[in-house]
Amino acid sequence: MSLLQEYFNDRNKVVKNLKLIFWTACALSLLIGFYGWFVRIVDGHIKANYGSIVTWGLWVAGYIYFIGLSAGSFLVSSLVYVFNYKKFERIGKLAVFTALVTLLMALLSIWADLGHMGRAWHVIVFPNFKSPMAWMIYLYSLYMLLIAVEIYFLLRYDFATGANNSTFKGKIYKLLSLGSKDSTEESKQRDKKVVKRLATAGIPIAILFHGGVGALFGVVSARPHWHSGLFPILFLLSALVSGGALLTLISSIFQQGWSKNKGVIIELGKMVLALLLLDVLFQVSEFLVAYRGGIPGHTAGFDLVLSGPYAWVFWGWQGLIGTVIPILLLIFPTRKSPLWVALAGLLIAAGIFGLRLNIVIPGLAVEEIHGLTSAIYSHRVDPHYFPSISEWALTMGIVGFGMLLFGLGEYFLPKHEEKT
């Protein structure tokens, strides 16, 4: 036991090993992802297991999951740049960068789900503004532009000063500075004012587009499992939970890990715990209202979640791994250890993905015409959907891509303390 304690006391060694694990997982995910993308591009949707009954699968669940991570991370960053919450200042830039990376991952995930990926631009050029999806696409575009500009002004001073170095990183800084050479203190203060305005404008946009994702499901009256006025609120709340949880994990790996970010990680853990408990309350309310009403169409989807073929996702993945264990870690004395708080963040982030699966798939798996799936013998007319190997592989590739961007960001983006 003393050897184990000695190991964890050597924080530099632990952080170094965490990065080794990170890069190993990144390489494996990218390698597996190549196979998934190859199958998707060559065979289209043939190798995917969704069909005529369950028309949305793993990639749509991944899309709303990554979008939630992006919105949650951005809203956490707004605590720093809008409300001047000093306790999270060390990870403010990291939170904005996380919002951008996870947004790109979300767009890749939904792009893979399209029947004709080459026609993705049609929704921008030929929008139907009666559809919430068209509004979301424009909000995504505005949100991505806003984040990119905010990151630029967050780092412009560092890029301008770092561009004077003759190293490879200095050349990258010169490129990213977009020709700006002003490294005075006055310019730095101007940048902060611009960042505050952008972050302030970004709050309603982040709320609108992720609440809009919830509304996209909630307005589908033909699917009682989704048809709820609480859905936009639930999506926003779980976004804050997952975004905050992800940041606890990322903060323990990057920017000198928990050797420098210990206080931030502990504070994030407190915030995530409060949000998680509130999220559980809202989810329980959904179940209680549905079963108290007793309308078969409303309870059928919840039956699949609680006792049907997807029960293992709810009770094991989402419930035990993603909720119960993290709550215990964040309540007991382990809440004071950045190692255990980061682990709780990892488990919560993973659990929210199970929640996303339990939103998308059970809502579609309920038969609209009783007996239809038994009348037609085809794997495409099967309510018991489970993602295929190629679906999992492509999703792992998207995760690997995101990890790669995080790793590059760790190398190229200035640290919090850097003044060069």
Cα gyration radius (Å): 22 Å
Instruction: Return the CATH class.
Output: Mainly Alpha
Estimate what percentage of residues fall within beta strands: under 5%
Helix content: over 70%
- What's the number of helices? 15
Describe the secondary structure blueprint for this structure.
Elements: H1 2-9, H2 11-43, H3 58-81, H4 92-113, H5 122-125, H6 132-162, H7 168-176, H8 185-218, H9 231-253, H10 257-293, H11 296-307, H12 311-331, H13 338-365, H14 372-375, H15 389-412
Helix pairs in contact: 2-15, 3-4, 3-8, 3-9, 3-13, 4-6, 4-15, 6-7, 6-8, 8-9, 9-10, 9-13, 10-12, 10-13, 11-12, 11-13, 12-13
Question: Could you describe the 3D structure shown?
Answer:
The chain has helices spanning 2-9, 11-43, 58-81, 92-113, 122-125, 132-162, 168-176, 185-218, 231-253, 257-293, 296-307, 311-331, 338-365, 372-375, 389-412. It has 15 helices and no strands. The protein is mainly alpha-helical and 420 residues long. The longest helix is centred in the middle third of the chain and has 37 residues, at 257-293. It starts with a helix and ends in an 8-residue tail after the last helix.
Summary tags:
single chain, 420 residues, mainly alpha, Formate dehydrogenase/DMSO reductase fold, 15 helices, 0% strand, globular
